[in-house]
Design brief:
Layout lengths: L1 H30 L6 H21 L6 H13 L9 E2 L5 E9 L2 E6 L2 E5 L5 E6 L5 E6 L2 E6 L4 E6 L4 E5 L4 E6 L5 E5 L6 E6 L5 E7 L3 E7 L5 E10 L2 E10 L10 E4 L5 E6 L2 E5 L3 E6 L5 E5 L4 E8 L2 E7 L6 E7 L5 E8 L4 E5 L2 E6 L1 E7 L7 E6 L4 E6 L2 E5 L3 E6 L2
Antiparallel strand pairs: 1-32, 2-3, 3-4, 4-5, 6-7, 7-8, 8-9, 10-11, 11-12, 12-13, 14-15, 15-16, 16-17, 18-19, 19-20, 20-21, 22-23, 23-24, 24-25, 26-27, 27-28, 28-29, 30-31, 31-32
């Protein structure tokens, strides 16, 4: 009896406490039954891989081995910080068409030099050239520079690569694709003109001769395999313009996909796979590159003062008549529909697009116009000598002055 009591006092109570602790420690094991099933992780991994595949597909032109190498070189060159803006440029003048923003870098060609600067003002590229009437085109990491009326051109990158181009006769226009393929339109003996296509090493891919219309401008498809060419002629005493869509590998003669009477088409853009935009003096023409369906946007008698294109959209500066105190900014989609329109005071000298923002430059004033909201445009002082604008992003823009480049922030 005494022994039983002793065991009860000394052993049974701790045993009870120990048993209680075992029950508490067993509880976490029950929560393991509520872990996230492995198949959910598999689904997430599959969706992530699919997103990467889609991203790679849409950027396939930039993922070619030679493009990756150039991108790495360009990125290395782009490291570092400059002295900021304003930044004076060499040469006596930069034309508005030779002033653009690529990524967050500003690219411009004067009559003596080609320059690329990052957003801190550091020069990523400064190269002298001998083109007396330079034409510049920028696509991705590459820049096409050639001399209008001359016979030579080159494709360069900020990483230091240069590819020389040579034309048989005087150059009338040029185009550049993201993969480095390029094209030049030139005069041609016995013909109205000629299109010469080059690969990314500067080797001639093909020629195309125009016999009915004189070529005025060219653009390349994003993959560099096709060209859109605007051309003009006269018929029955009227001006007639045409747009050609030409395969650069077929070698076949094609007919214009559309012909316009009384509209001088002098610029063309091919920013997306499915749409080409051609700009004339009385209206803009949009073509579906698959179906060849055409949509037109008539300026309604207004005069075109500025234009630019970005990802299939077109920004236009229009004045109702010469000397008008007001202008209209119109941004169009690929179906010739108005995405945005605003009445601005002063003549629009230059326009630019970046994401969901449009910018318009008037005398001494820069307008930032949000495309995705009903918010009124905001303004910033542009300076009296500003002649061109290139949006860096939705809140800042590069401005071209008489002898310098400035960076202006949205108020």
């Amino acid at each position: 009896m005494h022994d039983d009591g002793y065991r009860y006092d000394a052993d049974s109570a701790p045993t009870g406490k120990h048993a209680l602790r075992e029950k508490k420690e067993a509880k976490p094991g029950r929560f393991r039954e509520h872990r996230v099933p492995r198949w959910i992780y598999r689904v997430i991994a599959i969706l992530f891989a699919a997103a990467l595949a889609i991203l790679a597909w849409f950027n396939r032109a930039n993922l070619a081995p030679e493009n990756v190498v150039q991108w790495v070189r360009t990125s290395i060159v782009g490291m570092g910080v400059g002295d900021g803006y304003p930044k004076n440029f060499s040469g006596s003048a930069v034309l508005a068409g030779n002033f653009v923003c690529s990524g967050e870098n500003v690219v411009y060609a004067s009559d003596t030099a080609l320059t690329v600067c990052n957003d801190t003002g550091k020069e990523l590229l400064s190269a002298q050239h001998s083109f007396s009437n330079p034409l510049m085109r920028v696509s991705g990491i590459r820049i096409l520079l050639c001399g209008l009326g001359g016979k030579n051109g080159e494709v360069v990158t900020t990483g230091g690569s240069t590819v020389k181009l040579t034309a048989g006769q005087n150059i009338l226009g040029g185009a550049l694709a993201p993969n480095g393929c390029s094209a030049l339109i030139t005069a041609a003996n016995g013909y109205c003109g000629m299109l010469t296509a080059f690969d990314n090493a500067g080797k001639v891919l093909s020629y195309y001769w125009f016999s009915d219309y004189y070529p005025t401008a060219v653009a390349l498809s994003p993959d560099g395999t096709r060209a859109a060419v605007t051309a003009v002629s006269a018929k029955d005493g009227e001006l007639v313009s045409a747009v050609y869509l030409i395969s650069l590998s077929s070698g076949k003669t094609v007919q214009p996909v559309t012909v316009c009477t009384g509209n001088l088409l002098s610029a063309v853009f091919w920013d997306t796979d499915g749409s080409v935009a051609a700009i004339g003096d009385t209206g803009a023409v949009f073509l579906n590159t698959v179906s060849s369906a055409k949509k037109e946007y008539d300026f309604g008698g207004a005069h075109l003062t500025a234009f630019c294109s970005d990802t299939g959209r077109l920004a236009l500066g229009l004045v109702p008549y010469d000397g008008s105190p007001d202008s209209r900014l119109a941004v169009l989609g690929s179906s010739a529909n108005e995405i945005y329109t605003a009445k601005l005071s002063g003549k629009i000298l230059s326009v630019s697009l970046s994401s969901q923002t449009a910018a318009a430059l008037t005398a001494g004033k820069l307008w930032f116009c949000p495309l995705s909201s009903s918010e009124a445009p905001s303004t910033a002082d542009a300076g009296g000598d500003a002649c061109a604008v290139a949006l860096k992003d939705g809140d800042s823009a590069y401005l071209l002055g008489i002898s310098s480049v400035r960076l202006v922030n949205r108020r």
